[in-house]
Known about the structure:
Layout: E1 2-4, E2 7-10, H1 14-25, E3 30-34, E4 48-50, H2 54-64, H3 68-75, E5 76-82, E6 92-97, H4 101-111, E7 116-120, E8 123-129, E9 132-138, E10 143-145, E11 148-151, E12 160-163, E13 166-169, H5 179-187, E14 192-198, E15 202-204, E16 240-243, H6 246-254, H7 277-283, E17 291-296, E18 303-307, H8 315-323, E19 333-335, E20 339-345, E21 362-364, H9 374-390, H10 402-413, H11 438-449, H12 454-476, E22 478-479, H13 483-492, E23 501-502, H14 503-507, H15 514-521, H16 528-539, H17 541-558, H18 576-585, H19 590-594, H20 601-614
Parallel strand pairs: 1-10, 2-3, 2-11, 3-7, 11-21
Antiparallel strand pairs: 4-6, 5-6, 8-9, 9-10, 12-13, 12-20, 14-20, 15-18, 15-19, 16-17, 17-18, 22-23
Amino acid sequence: MSDTVDIVVVGVGHAGCEAAAAAARLGLRVVAFTFHADHVGRLSCNPAIGGQAKGQLVRELDALGGVMARVADAATVQFRRLNTRKGLAVQSSRAQVDIAAYPRVMARTLASIEGLEVRQGEVTALRLHQGRVAGVVLADGTEVEARAVVLTTGTFLRGTLHQGDEVRAGGRVGDGAAVRLADQLADLGLPLQRLKTGTVPRLDARTIRWADLPAQDDLPHGRFSYAEPAAERLAPLTCHLTYTNDAVHELLQGNLHRSAMYSGAIEGTGPRYCPSIEDKVVRFPDRARHLLFLEPEGHETHRVYVNGLSTSMPLDVQRQMVAAIEGLEDAVILQPGYAVEYDAIDPRVLGADLQHRELPGLFFAGQVNGTSGYEEAAVQGFVAGVSAATGEALRLRRDEAYIGVLVDDLVSRGVGGEPYRMFTSRAEHRLLLREDNADRRLMARGRALGLIDDPTWAAFAARQEALEAGQAAVEALRLTPRGATQAKLQALGTATLRRPITGTELLRRPEVSYPAMAEVFALPALPPALAEQLDCEVRYAGYIRRAQRRADRLARMEAVALPEAMDWAALSMLSTEVRQRLAARSPATLGEAARVPGVTAAALDALAGWVAKHGGAP
């Protein structure tokens, strides 16, 4: 039995959902395969979307026409802004979402897209034809022909679950492992690496002493998507805080030999920036306590996710550990924490479109590329889906988007043997890549692709017009040290004038904001988000201009193409190590060469001089 479609997507986690949705919305016939048809968009780890730098990814995805932000908004039960004591460049949004509502809304979203079908079945092999991937084979022998296959297999390639000394096959609790597909990828010569991730105990909310624990604030009108919400937000749920303590740490230290992480049962490397609680205790012995977030999983369950307590300890140790934490003395564990070990590819074998360099038609996205996190997976799925659908790489520069930073890091540097997580510190142009201006940076790209609808585009145009009107009003304002002006300045809570100044100079004062200026000087009113954006643009104009000049210089390097058939060994002015590294990567531009690990500034200058002298000669 056989079938023919345009694109096959393997997996319907966050990467698979975005890949399938984007490709189908671009007019192609898409089939997405999953072990279980009711597992679309599952939140198998924490019930949250966004976070540090991840909020930027979600916003950028929405500006391009992805679906994650709208689905998250429809399922949000708490919304927060992180790093609010710092500048807008590092502020990010995070939404706690209902663990049942999110996949339900995602499934409805995919079902509404013409040309997209989700089928239940295990993909066990790729079909190959004349040196390229031409479809898939299912466990029941069914063959599906396609011009492109997007693998978004998450933690399922030879997935293994660990809890203490208990080991069983699976990509997560309740699901199996994809062994035959992993074997074929290895046989095809793909470089595989063994990685590890983990999850936390889920507790019964009815057994927690909530009154003893501080609550977190909610931002009631917060949302990710630039589109108007289709419905009212779900009723809020309150998250609380607690901490580990000396008793917990002593318990873990005394049982390290029983942890799958420290007993030698796990070979793979876990995420450095999301370690297990036993790993935290070992790595930070001087820390008296570690912060834990108690996050209700939704309105239809009593389960509570203990964010920060990831563990692979046996159940008896987990019970003692939980009972030693303030507020959780009587808490019942509904699902123990566990670790997952899985195969991932080395993403340096991929191009900017996330297509395998030597197997045309085969794309990879998500945790299979060595990343961690729903958001990192989703944006990769979008890039792979759009690229597979259009036949051209969706290229975003590092100064255009965090998505560009992520993809470039993966394909040029790899993940360094441990799961990759996005941080604002990874983006050298982060002052330009703020969460608040994602629409200004990327929505025109999404519109050109055909993935931004008319209402969303019209709303964007209206926001731009309002922002420009506010900027023009500030720039036109002229203030002189007269009595009436001095009184208005006093009303703003700022110092009076000794000389004439402009409205721009006034707004640069840290105690002055655009909303206050608008009220005092009768300037155009702006929504809070736009007013905050205008404040940032004016206050940090000098820094932004400097950052833009730096980005422009690097962009010029990206435009300097290197010959495809470059004989790197013949470039004697470069060290042997640098020549070997460049030969292994075969960078297409001078900018790509600059990001190859081990290529020094001196080597780059020498290479730039060679290109200037020889032009396109190999």
